[in-house]
Structures are given as structure tokens and as C-alpha cells.
Amino acid sequence: MTSHTQHPITAPPAAPVRETTGHLLLRGWCIFVLAGGLAGTGWLMVLGTVGTGVAVFGSALLSLVLWVILRPPVQWRRLPWFAVGYVVLATLSLFWSHWPGASALTLAVLVSTTVLGFFVASVLTWREIVRALASALKWILALSLLFELWVSLIWQGPILPQFVRPDGGVDDPIVLWSRDNLSDGGRIQGLFGNSNALAYVALLGMVVFAIRFAARAPRRVLLAGWFALAVFLFVRAGSATAYLAAAMTVVVLVTVLLMRTTRRPGERTRFYVLYAVVAIGGLAGLWYARDAIFAILGRSSDLTGRESIWAAVAARAAERPVWGWGFSSPWVPTEPAFDRWIVDHGQTVMQAHNMWLDVFLQLGAVGVAVMALTYLAFIWRSWFFAIDRPRWDLVADRPYSPLTLLPTLVAAQLLVQGLAESTPLLNWGWMLLVLLAFKIKQAPLVGRGPTEQRLVGEQGERLTSP
Asked: Rounded distance, CA 431 to CA 453, Å?
């Protein structure tokens, strides 16, 4: 029989801390929000343009209402101001935009995505964010595999968006939602209708699942299974730029782990010099050996026609080099200025396939400067968030948390992705940028800060700081 002392200074035993039903529902909503951002073009494939708009704006509106009702503790002076400045600049571009309709429509998406990122960061702790992101990735990756299986086994053939069967052949496979390649060894596209998008989300899944595994999350065997699924989808997507992003992610991870072994300030200086030499040499080697590298990866050295797209975008951007032509991410294909402007595989191109060129086209050199400062601030804070030992008092030997690796690894992935895609400017790329940048400024230590001061029940442990 269990008993406890009646001594007045001894507290009676208490049950482990549990999450309230309301907080469970809130975390479930955050998982849906993150999964919606990760799904990206998958919404268009299933619901079309109107349905996607309703889902995006409806999610943002409901999250804003919940934010007002819950009123989580937020230090409003500690916002990621450069990211906010980019949104403000995009809004101001309505006054000089060459395509005001497209600017207004895509600006609404940008603001909605920003609100969703801020909302999740303010209502969840660091551990909950990583946990919710892992759950969202599980849904997206599992549904992508199930969708490809359904196409292969039940639909038995290629499929167009919104579950339409092609009437005979198609002019170009690029219009297909799925090419039914799961069983023949070809590149698969998952829910996204795009192999590159699937590869990048799978890479993010590998990062998040590995961090959860290292943090000793429960059910680690299942986590290893999810990691294996992410690897499988990453390989089957076959994206050359995603392979480069994975290589950069590994380099950054190794660098951070080495930096964590230093004991004296001078050791870091030597490491920084070494990394700079390796980085410059590595980039030079990649550039001069790009033909051989892309041949190994099965891609052309011009990244499947991207160089011609970059040339056309740069030529138009140079006509308005300071303030640009007006915000529009992505390019709205029904806008006359974009319709049939750049055509690839018979389809109107909806992005510059380079984040920096896209910003230069839309917001000019001013926009590029603001975006560069946004990434510089994010990289700077996430880097020291990862390599500095947690300390808020005289104790200087607290262990590192694997959770602090997430922002800097996401930054590495987005930077490489931005060289060949414009997707870091929207969907989950922009959402995670503002979410993680906001969270680092609000809570620079895991378990400490206004947005961390709450009891949550993961394995019945108290996650607030001691």
C-alpha cells in the first residue's frame, strides 16, 4: 500500500502534469496549420484556386481569432523586424505595382502565411513546435505515399489535378498531378504534383525526425520508421537541387557539432577561418565541376532550362532596378503581364526559379536588401542559438538541446533551395522563416521566455525552466 508522510513541509504527491483538452485542441489546430503550409501546391491539386483561397484565408482568420481570445504572452518589441519590413514593403508596392490585382491577391497570401507563423510561435513552446512540425510532416509524407499507391493500384494510370483522368495522351507530363511512376522507378510527385517540392519536404522531415530522435522523444522506433519513409520519398523524388540542399544541411550540422566541442573562445576563431576556406573552395569546385556533378545527378548543367528563365527575369528587372515592378509571389498566370511571358514545357512559368531574382524583379534592389537583412538576422540568431551552451545564471555546463539545431538547419535548406526555386518566399518556406525567427527572439533559450512559461505534458515532464 502506498503512503506518504503528513509532515507539514512535505507536499502531498501529485499526478503528473497533463495537457488540458483545450490545449490539446490548440496543438491539433497548429498541426493542421503547419500541415497546410507544408502541403503547398497540394491544395491546388485537390481543391483548385478558389478552394485553396478559402482554406488559406480561413485558416489565417480563425488563427487570428484564437490569438485574440488566448492572448498568449508576447514581447511585441521583439518581433523579427526585417521580415515584418519585407511584408510592409510588399504592401507599399501596391502604389507602384505594374500588376496591382496580382499584387493584392498574393499579398493577402503573404500576410496570411506571416500571421500563421507568428500564431504558432506564440502559442506553442519550442518542444511543442518541433513535436507539432513532426506530426504535420508525418501526415503530409504518409498521404503522399498513400496517394501514389492509390494511383498505382486503384486509379492505374496518370492523373490530372482534381482527380481528372487524362483523355488520351497529354502534351507534356508537367501538367499531371501524378505520373504513376511509383512502380516503374521514375520520379514521384506525391500530393504536390511536383517532385522538387516533395523532395524538400522529405528532407525537412529527415531533419525534424532526427532531432526528435536525438531529443529522446517517445516511440523512437516509430520515429526511425518515419525517417526511413522520408528517405525513401526523398530518393524517389530525385531532385538534384534537393541533393545539394541535403549536402549543405549535413555540412552545417557537422559544423555546429564541432563548434559545440570548443572550450575556449580562440578555438572558435580557428574553426571559422577553416570553414571559410573550405566554403570558398567548395563553392568554386562546385561551380567549375557543375557539368560533371549534374551529369551524375541526371540533370543538365543549366538546371533544366533555368538559365534562360533567369536571363529573361534579369532583363525585365533591370528596367526598374530600384523599387521593382510590384509584389507578386507567385506570379499569377491570369495576369496579362505574366501570361505566356515565359513558357516552359508549354506552361506559363509562375516563378523566377531563384528567390533573389524574384525579389529583384518585384521589389528591386530595396527588396533584395531587405530580404538579405531578413536572412542575415535569421542565420545569425539561429547559428548562436545552436552553438551557444544554454546559460542564464552561473551554471556554465548545462547540456545542449537537440531542438536548437532546427532553425539553423532550416536556414541552410532554404538558402540552397532559394538558388533554384522561389518557393522560400511563400508556403512553408516563409512560414517557418517567420515562425522560427519570431520564436528565437521571444525565447532565446529552450524552456525560458514568456512564450515558454507554461506547463505541458510530454511524458509527464515539466517543460518550463527550473
From this structure: 23
For 283-431, where are the E strands, in sequence order? Answer: 343-344, 347-348
Centre a 10 Å sphere on the Cβ of residue 102 and count the other Cβ atoms it contains: 24
C-alpha cell recorded at residue 142: 504518409
Which residues of the chain fall below pLDDT 70? 1-19, 171, 265, 279, 282-283, 286-305, 393-396, 449, 451, 453-466
DSSP 8-state assignment for residue 344: E
Cα dihedral sign for 302, 308, 309, 314? positive
Please name the residue that has the C-alpha cell 518557393: 423
Instruction: Specify the pTM.
Output: 0.89
Are 27 and 66 in contact by the 8 Å Cβ rule? The answer is no
Q: What is the DSSP string of 50-112?
A: HHHHHHHHHHHHHHHHHHHHH-----GGGS-HHHHHHHHHHHHGGGT-SSHHHHHHHHHHHHH
Residues whose CB falls within 8 Å of the CB of residue 330, separated by 6 or more in sequence, listed in order: 106, 350, 351, 422, 426
Contacts of 195 (CB under 8 A, 6+ apart): 187, 188, 189, 237, 238, 239
